[in-house]
Amino acid sequence: MSPIDPPLEDEARSAAARGWLIPAIIGSAMLMQTMNATVIANALPTMAVALDESPLRLNMAITMYLLASAVFLPISGWVADKFGAKKIFMLSMVLFAASSAACGFANSLTDLVIARIFQGMAGAMMGPVGRLVLLRTTPKEELVGAMSVMTMPALLGPVIGPIVGGAIVTFADWRWIFFLSTPVAAVGVLLVMKFVPDVREQEVAPVDLKGALMTGLGLAGLIFGFENLGKAVLPPLGVVGLFVGGAGMLYLYYRHARGNPSAILDLSVFRIQTFNASVTGGAFMRVAMGATPFMLAMLLQVGFGLSALQAGLMTFISAAGALVMKTTAPPILRRFGFRTVLIVNGLIVAVSFVSYGLFKPTTPHWLIMTILAIGGFFRSLHFTSLNGLAYADIEQDKMSRASTTSSMMQQLVQSIGIGLAALLMHFFMTLRGDTKLTAEAVSPAFVVVGLFTLISLIFFVRLPPNAGDEMNGRGVR
């Protein structure tokens, strides 16, 4: 054995850890977060009976989580830079599990809401800080593959959440929904301590509390505005007030951040073409991705009369397509490049969304599942491509604020997707003169959402052919 063999073996082990182990650990934490969000939505009616509250009032548990997450999300990057991303990531996992357990022990709506506020704080830190850990521990040429692995568990959350939630409330006590996070977090923290390298703390300016307050309140206003579209929970004037107040706060932040190097969010990253194409251009695609699970549930359960478990099992097949894609995304991007993949795949994804609008109650289930699996494959490829492209030209000293900005946009866009879906279905239901939601009101909404995604192509066609080549290995091939 030559003297250089041990170092080469150590480097191979290190590369393997960067390639799948570290991203899988971070992705598992995000699975805990995304699954929790979908499971509680499915369990609200059962929880309302147990706590002797109306389901409408119990919806505050979701609302307060979103509010806490929106307020604390802007400072996540600063906190990670100040105290170390690895430390904050582990702390957020522990806090998320502890507050989740507190939700399980809640005996009143007040107890539940307080616990959900702390859970929202932890969730706001866990996502962007986990991504930041990956960005700072992985070379750029390995980042696309690592992000593919990281997003794999997170993509499973919204798909398996309804199945897990339905099974728990059917065969066990709803409180176990919240206790599930404890073992996941315990194992996750141990794995992070053992395998994730220390991410050095950064030199940071004092926290921009004024900017954090403006962005948090602005994001919260817009999210709640979109959440209440088409739901008749708030009067129309109240929804307009949320939009105006949220947009006004973000405009004040824009004026505050201009020429301010210490601003909590660095808006200059939007001048970087690859980041702007991914975050702004990709937003039109992410709106559809946020709307699809909600609309599919309405189509299959309300429109076709399937049970929640049947619909969940059918849509689960889309996760299989997403998982298959994760192994093929890096070679596809290496062969064709970000620009070509985003343009061609964007067209395919748009067609897949439109095709969902062609489903009928008489459509064979095997055909629906096949189309959902194909759609899941190409949506996941698009999701991975957008995530990788965003950080192609971001310098290390801007990674934390770029990650926070991207997370804020994704959270806002997800709410826009759900609000848009509710608004479209309500519009087509009213147009038909129906008083109840039917499949005929859901189907055209898929067509509109699919066509809406095509706006993103305007940003992708402007990219240079070699955009992001350093990320996918083409630049060093």
Topology:
Blueprint lengths: L4 H46 L4 H4 L1 H13 L3 H8 L1 H20 L4 H29 L5 H29 L4 H4 L1 H15 L13 H19 L8 H22 L15 H31 L4 H8 L1 H40 L8 H26 L8 H33 L7 H14 L4 H5 L7 H4 L5
Helix pairs in contact: 1-6, 1-7, 1-9, 3-6, 3-10, 4-5, 4-16, 5-6, 5-9, 6-16, 7-13, 7-14, 7-15, 10-11, 10-16, 12-13, 12-14, 12-15, 12-16, 12-17, 14-15, 14-17, 16-17
* Strand segment count: 0
Q: Supply the CATH class of the largest domain.
A: Mainly Alpha
- Give the helices and strands as they follow along the chain: HHHHHHHHHHHHHHHHHHH
Classify the oligomer: single chain
Distinct helical segment count: 19
Q: Specify the CATH homologous superfamily of the largest domain.
A: MFS general substrate transporter like domains
Q: SS-based structural class?
A: mainly alpha
- In the CATH hierarchy, the third-tier topology of the largest domain is known as Growth Hormone, Chain: A
Uncertain ranges: 8-12
Mean pLDDT across the residues is 80
Overall shape: globular
How helical, in percent, are the residues? over 70%
Distance separating the two termini: 30 Å
Per CATH, the architecture of the largest domain is Up-down Bundle
Beta-strand content estimate: under 5%
Largest sheet: none
Radius of gyration: 22 Å
Number of domains: 3
